[in-house]
Design brief:
The complex is a heterodimer of chains A (about 110) and B (about 110).
Chain A: E1 3-7, E2 10-13, E3 19-26, E4 32-38, E5 44-52, E6 55-58, E7 65-70, E8 73-78, E9 87-94, E10 104-105, E11 109-113
Parallel strand pairs in A: 2-11
Antiparallel strand pairs in A: 1-3, 3-8, 4-5, 4-9, 5-6, 7-8, 9-10, 9-11
Chain B: E1 3-6, E2 11-14, E3 19-21, E4 23-26, E5 32-38, E6 44-50, E7 56-59, E8 62-65, E9 75-77, E10 86-95, E11 99-103, E12 107-112
Parallel strand pairs in B: 2-12
Antiparallel strand pairs in B: 1-4, 3-9, 5-6, 5-10, 7-8, 8-9, 10-11, 10-12
Classes of the chains: A mainly beta (about 110), B mainly beta (about 110).
């Protein structure tokens, strides 16, 4: 069966510090991978998606970047965090085929930038 | 572009009450529609889905019917339990090389004994 691991679960970082959140998927090959952010009182915003190794697409301009060094590894990074980067970050994966494939989400990382 | 509008929360209900969470959407073409649920401290998980007009998705006593004429996908449950307390997200999706899923803002449900 497929599983998705996301860590850390919580993170408190000072403004201006770097960030690295990691997500790995097991039990499937060549998945689509996603990073979402859920800000307080707002819905989920798609930040990045990837259809393959080294292929990253950004949905919104921002202070963050993403990388996919391996087929089932997706990393969210920042060189210098801003206060506005605080939020709940969710990694997700999906199969490639079909129009109704669901997203499988990780358990999320609560990031507080102080 | 695609958008999803769901009713504002929080919604507070007594156990065994009837639940409706409204969801309407704007989309081109024929999207799939989803309800995801997020329990406290966890990621989202799919609750139910419908892939075409008049389809009814159901799971764990929850139901939602894909209404193309009213562009709606309202979530209902006949008798809620305390364990149903969570945030519920309506979403629509298209496939275009990746799953283009647009989420609503979420509705927090609190069920009290």
């Amino acid at each position: 069966s497929q599983t998705i691991h996301q860590w850390p679960a919580t993170l408190v970082q000072p403004v201006g510090s770097p960030l690295s959140l990691e997500c790995t998927v097991e039990g499937t090959s060549n998945p689509n991978l996603y990073w979402y952010r859920q800000a307080a009182g707002r819905g989920l915003q798609l930040l990045f998606y990837s259809v393959g190794i080294g292929q990253i697409s950004s949905e919104v301009p921002q202070n963050l970047s993403a990388s996919r060094p391996q087929d089932r590894q997706f990393i969210l990074s920042s060189k210098k965090l801003l206060l506005s980067d605080s939020g709940f970050y969710l990694c997700a994966w999906s199969l490639k085929q079909g129009t109704n494939e669901k997203l499988f989400f990780g358990s999320g990382t609560q990031l507080s930038v102080l | 572009g695609n958008s999803v509008t769901q009713m504002e929360g929080p919604v507070t209900l007594s156990e065994e009450a009837f639940l409706t969470i409204n969801c309407t959407y704007t989309a081109t073409g024929y999207p799939s529609l989803f309800w995801y649920v997020q329990y406290p401290g966890e990621g989202l998980q799919l609750l139910l889905k419908a892939t075409k007009a008049d389809d009814k998705g159901s799971n764990k006593g929850f139901e939602a019917t894909y209404r193309k004429e009213t562009t709606s996908f309202h979530l209902e449950k006949g008798s809620v339990q305390v364990s149903d307390s969570a945030v519920y997200f309506c979403a629509l999706g298209h496939s275009g090389g990746y799953q283009k899923v647009t989420f609503g803002t979420g509705t927090k449900l609190q069920v009290i004994p």
